[in-house]
Amino acid sequence: MSGHSTYEPKTGFERWLDSRLPIVRMAYDSVVAFPTPKNLNYWWTFGGILAFCLGMQIVTGIVLAMHYVPHVDYAFNSVERIMRDVNYGWLIRYVHANGASMFFIAVYIHMFRGLYYGSYKAPREVLWILGCVIYLLMMATAFMGYVLPWGQMSFHGAVVITNLFGALPVVGPSITTWLWGGFAVDDPTLNRFFSLHYLLPFMIAGVVGLHIWALHVPGNNNPTGVNVKSAQDTVPFHPYYTVKDGFAVSVFVLMFAVFVFYMPDALGHSDNYIKANPLVTPTHIVPEWYFLPFYAILRALPNKLAGVLAMFGAIASLFVLPWLDTSKVRSMRYRPTAKLYFFIFVLACIALGFCGAKLPDDPVIPGVTSFQLMDADLNSFVWLSRIAALYYFAYFWVITPLLGLTETPLPAPESISSPVLSHPATTPAGAVASPEKRG
Amino acid sequence: MADTVVGANPDPHASGSSLVEGDPNRRDFIHIAATVAAVGAVGALAWPLIDQMNPAGDTLALASIEFDLSKVVEGQQVVVKWRGKPLFVRYRTAKEIEAAIKDDHADMRDPATDESRHKPGKAQWLILIGTCTHLGCVPTFGGGEYGGWFCPCHGSVYDTAGRIRKGPAPLNLVLPDYSFLSDSKIKVG
Q: Which member of B85, B140, B170 has the closest CB to residue A278?
């Protein structure tokens, strides 16, 4: 898509088609001849893995919809019927349910990759924002999909999430009623969630198309963060990255299969095998693991509206990141200080996820009560999540803007090829701006 | 007719220069009118598609319910489903009422006296919508340090009058519209 097309129709039919619908040309230019930086590492394979996940979810989802009944009286039993009676239903449902978790594992790695290597910086801001849109759509899709089996966690998860909108002043209650289609989460809610759960993956696929389009205009970022300078810095996408991505997908599928065949319910919650009961909330209600960090932020604040705003703000911060980062150096390979703060950020996200799964008042270190400060018990998950949430926001709004102005980055290589040629395994990353190439 | 008029007698204001001068002419008017009409039409078309998600007629027509209080013994709570949500019917003990009145002037997020939480002369009957005002979970009976309810989702604690005492919930448990039909029968809704 960038630069000249090198496609040459070989057969008469291809020539005929090329002058009418140049679709083979488009495919050739974007997945065969596309010039790709030659130094991409395995962190760059997660785009392909995500495309695989999306395809898998759509295929298994369409099949499941052939057997599922979106009605409060039948939904739970229809899922049980899929598990017990439908041919290979158990396999298809376990692939779909675990596939959602695999999708999120991949997307989080993909996002952290972008953060670390500065892939969100100019000229890739639109590419990054489209990615954030995909992530939002994924969260909406996953949430609505989790409601469909109509188990206890499905139902009460739906109650909690829809009530989040009730925190908005003035319009909140009308919005929740509108989302519910009634006075509570009930049959109308289940029906519309099913309808939207079927729709949104195709919207994701559409935005993925835009995401790839926006990727192919500037081309891939790469581990050095240095722009492609010449054809020497690139290799054609096929066979180099089709093979590399293919290998990564195969390894990923192995891990996926371990979950599907050996611990299919490890990532779920046993309470969701109890049919929804609006009158009893499970004693310990938690969302799926991929929402836990945001759930912890929600609970970290003692005020309902503030908690909801902080949770949405945590996602909104991602959207504006390209304009918060003042550093001109893309890759953190050459930003040792930023690298340190980045790894603390990763730890803070993991800590938030950990806190989200625990009861807020439980002690972090059991048996220790010496962290009492006035009436606050600092040895509690709610306080750990407060500290981690504070760091989360500080990373985006304070550390990232200030670091770019104050830090001294290491010299970045002149081109992608120079560190590759001087062998990074034996040369420290900072020294690869090889002096012999200067001047 | 309009065509022939314009064709035969070109509008002197219809050139680009008139726009620079900010002189509205008939063509500007047509543009604005067409845009307004198009936006109005889109809005009119969008509204049914948005409003269809609001509660349907049969959902709104959910009848009010009657409940026989003689089924509840002192100290007990019965949960009834009303409009898809749990309704708490609690027969409070004298001790619980006393505790609630004692705290009438305690520091509370949503101050309310115990008197305002029940019908006059019916202090033993507490009728509440059983969804936490935080995010709608169902609080558990008898939990929390105030002897009222404890919400398992995010740790909100309500006292024996259903008032919020601790945790993230902003408001007291909501009182439904209800009335006593007789000493032992209420009508909710």
A: B85
